[in-house]
Amino acid sequence: MKDSEFISFPEDLRQCIHFHGHLCPGLIYGYRVAKEALRLMGSERAHDEEIVAIAENDSCAVDALQVILGTTAGKGNLIVRDYGKNAFVIADRKSARAIRFSRKTHYTYGGENPSEYADLESKLVAGNMTEEEENRRKYLKSMDLLTGEFSAIFETEHIAMPDLPYAPLAPSVPCSLCGEMTMATKLIDRGTEGKCCIPCVGKTRLPQER
């Protein structure tokens, strides 16, 4: 991707690319979903946990959700359920509205270079694509997804607001075995061994379990 092409992108997309590290179709999927969700719900980027994103995959798209929606692992309003599905639920706690977006079954390139894209796809299938050609294929598909009609890419379904508890808060206390500070609600009671962190539980067993 040329510098001039990068500069021509909207500022928020440039932020996504900078955060993710490169432009790719997966990032554009997340970018388009996030922008459409904000538009349909009349919402703004979350400062805290006002918006929650549930991603049904752990793909590149998740990074765009974090940048555009403010849904992050650290705040607890990004939930990844890795079903391997290109689908996302975006919920706004303030308006109690939720929308599920799922990618349509078939993708057909609709850009300005169909013959070039078809040739690159053939090389991809044959397994003889160079790195430069792969980058070009990603760029062509990304630009097509960026400019295409959203309804041609994703199904949009308004759904009932899911039960979304806020991120839990709990004090940290030392694990009885390793002594490392651990969120109290994550400790497991091991009887005579005390309350232990998950890694320590995986290393030890009580006598009756041996």
Question: How would you summarize this macromolecular structure in one to three sentences?
Answer:
The protein is α+β, with helices and mostly antiparallel strands and 210 residues long.
Describe what this molecule looks like in 3D.
This protein has 210 residues and is an alpha+beta fold. It has two domains: 3-159, 2-Layer Sandwich (60s Ribosomal Protein L30, Chain: A); 172-209, no CATH class. The protein has helices spanning 3-8, 11-20, 25-41, 61-69, 114-126, 131-147, 150-153, 198-203, and strands spanning 51-55, 78-80, 87-92, 97-103, 154-159, 172-174, 181-183, 188-189, 195-196. Helix 2 (11-20) packs across helix 4 (61-69). The protein is built from eight helices and nine strands.
Key features?
210 residues, alpha+beta, 60s Ribosomal Protein L30, Chain: A, 2 domains
Overall outline? globular
Indicate how many domains the architecture comprises: 2
Helix/strand order, N-terminal first: HHHEHEEEHHHEEEEEH
Q: Give the radius of gyration.
A: 22 Å
CATH architecture of the largest domain: 2-Layer Sandwich
What portion of the residues fall into strands of 2 or more residues? 15-25%
- Count of DSSP strands: 9
Largest sheet entry = 5 strands, mixed
- The amount of helix comes to 25-40%
Strand order of the largest sheet: 2-1-3-4-5
- State the separation between the terminal residues, measured CA to CA: 58 Å
Mean pLDDT: 91
Instruction: Please count the helical segments.
Output: 8
CATH class of the largest domain: Alpha Beta
Structural class: alpha+beta
Query: The CATH topology of the largest domain is what?
Result: 60s Ribosomal Protein L30, Chain: A
Question: Which stretches are low in confidence, meaning pLDDT under 50 for 5 or more residues running?
Answer: 206-210
